[in-house]
Amino acid sequence: MTPLLEVRDAGKVFHTGGFLHKKHHVAVEHVSFAISADRPSITAIAGESGSGKTTLARLILGILRPSTGEIRYNGKPVGSMDRGEWRTFRREVQAIFQDPFEVYNPFYKVDHTLVLSVQKFGLAKSRREGRELIEQALRAVGLRPEETLGRYPHQLSGGQRQRVMVARALLLKPRIIVADEPVSMVDASLRATILESLLKLYTDLGISLVYITHDLTTAYQLSGNIITLYQGAVAEVGDVERVIKAPQHPYTQLLVASIPMPNPKLRRAKLEVAQDELIVGGVGCRFANRCPHVLAECRESAPPLYRTEPNRATACYLYKSAPAIHATEIATLLQ
Amino acid sequence: MTVEVLRVRDLRVRYDTPRGTVKAVEEVSFSLRQGEKLGLVGESGSGKSTIALALMRLIRPPGRIESGQVFLGDSNLLALSDEQMRLTRFARISLVPQGAMNSLNPVMRIRHQLGDTIRAHDADSPRQDVEARIAELMESVGLRKSVANMYPHELSGGMKQRVCIAMGICLRPQVIIADEPTSALDVVVQRQVMDTLDSVQAQLGAAVILVGHDMGLMAQFVDRIAVMYAGRLVEIGPVEQIFDESLHPYTRLLIATLPSLEVRSAFRGIPGIAASPLDPPNGCTFHPRCPWAIDRCSDEAPAYREVRPGRWAACHLAV
């Protein structure tokens, strides 16, 4: 596989506090994966708040520089691209953010954000051609241009606003879209519509998606591969069908067990889990304090990834009979 | 015969805006049985949070309660004096507000905030009693006693939400209204908060109104579901029956949009845009989005009626 985008052993440490009270916060560590240039794919990155998933999104988009490791696009490290390469990167890798309210300037009509993209990247030769492109993009996400253009952001619903953002990303004919919790602030009834338009980008236009979410159900619905993160580190990675249907890492098991099943006949028993979220692991496995299967070695050093199945790996000592792999090998597991 | 603790009759709430009057809640009637868990579901703007605030009489201008009755036991809450209503809040009916993380005072320790609520209703309660009650409350929501000495910023979102539940139950009310108590929380924490709400509800024997838009959560937690659309109740009934066969098309579509772990890549959204409460369509407010709509739906608003025993719906086609 020729990787289009490659995250190689990336880590990000934030330094807070002043001269005397320096603190380090490891937001992401040893995360690797790749998106193939040959075949489009949908990769879900799932985790709770504080798992580092948004930091990872920002690393991929080049908004943040990694503290360790690197992000490569077309073989070039994102941090050291020349102007032309950076411009191509900015066009081919698009972002959709969580909050469809904050991304708009309330003083401009929604057209502005779309027209600006057309102008900045010189997508159209004339104003009319630009308008046509915009209308095409809006239709592709299921919006009627005549009902959308000429309106101010507050005149559209949250779902419509989010779809305009999908249309904006689409205008630039990207190869990858990084969607950071695109539906978490949208009503349940509209979520399906937005996810459907994202899925269409993949099936009809061959755009690869990185879908960042805390919601395992939509991750399962949308993606082919999944990476679950716990406090910045990869807990489990692999084929979504296997990971969700038969989770191996105790954290993924907890996540899957917490999904509210939309069936009143299948009520779940109360969760038996350590309630103390405030204790953060020091050395060793970060999940050790909450883990029902914790072993002595879990508190001594962090477990490596064990390749438990051809397309799957789990960072947990319970699977130590399987061969250990290095983080950079994650890409070889993903299909 | 089960006792009805709360009866809402023909509630109407209006917001006066420069562009006209918004009928946020229109002709809403329902009752809540003792110890029952009722889910109030709807999209944003459907009026579900407005109902929660109206029941607590916390609607602020430009909003106003136009008419209706809210009977809590024998007293009509809408007819009480302000002082009587103040004494009723928390003691008999309490609200766990939306975005509870922001409803705690950031510069007061948790114990003082809980103590204030208790003392506002019983100024003479001895210090030891209040302290003992706080310790008891912390335990019933699954927090360590020492959490009471902390400030809100020292707690995680789920812990703050559990503190808010503790506040909601500190005077042992008969009715607890929880407005989207888990909307900003992670799945695991969401489960824990719902488990907490479930167990305190069982301890108190109180009735709960759970406001939200997540049908999956409702399926797991409530006994009956009430569905709102554009300010009106469109369906109410026992949760299992509603999931088996809903009588209103909107409910049916809402359930169909739920992503499941069974089929992949099958997304079904509800087409169209939610009706504007400022200018609702004629006839049934849902007819422009309804795939089953007939001519009658655009002319005549369907009556909200008891279609089957214990199952109410507002749809011409419901049988």
Question: Would you summarize the structure shown here?
Answer:
With 335 residues, chain A is α/β, with parallel strands linked by helices.
Structural account:
The complex is a heterodimer of chains A (335) and B (319). Chain A folds into two domains: 41-63 and 81-215, Rossmann fold, CATH 3.40.50; 224-326, no CATH class. Helices cover 31% and strands 24% of the residues of chain A. Chain A is built from eleven helices and 13 strands. In chain A, helix 3 crosses helix 4, helix 3 (110-120) runs parallel beside helix 6 and helix 4 packs across helix 6 (158-171). The mean pLDDT of chain A is 85. Chain B has a single domain (4-261, 268-313), classed as Rossmann fold. In chain B, 31% of the residues lie in helices and 25% in strands. In chain B, helix 5 (157-169) packs parallel to helix 6. The interface between A and B is large, with 47 and 48 residues.
Report strand order across the widest sheet of chain A: 6-7-8-3-9-10-12-11-13
Mean pLDDT of chain A: 85
Give the helix/strand class of chain B: alpha/beta
**What is the 3D form of chain A?**
globular
The CATH topology name of the largest domain in chain A reads Rossmann fold
Number of domains of chain A: 2
How many strands of chain A?
13
Radius of gyration of chain B, in Å, reads: 20 Å
- Look at the structure and give the CATH class of the largest domain in chain A: Alpha Beta
Q: Which stretches of chain B are poorly predicted, pLDDT < 50 over at least 5 residues?
A: none
Characterize the quaternary organization of these chains.
heterodimer
For the biggest sheet of chain B, the summary is: 8 strands, mixed
The helicity of chain B comes to 25-40%
Count of strand segments of chain B: 12
CATH class of chain B: Alpha Beta
* Protein chain pair with the most extensive contact, residues per chain: A-B, 47 and 48 residues
CATH fold-level assignment of chain B:
Rossmann fold
Specify the biggest β-sheet of chain A: 9 strands, mixed
The CATH homologous superfamily of chain B: P-loop containing nucleotide triphosphate hydrolases
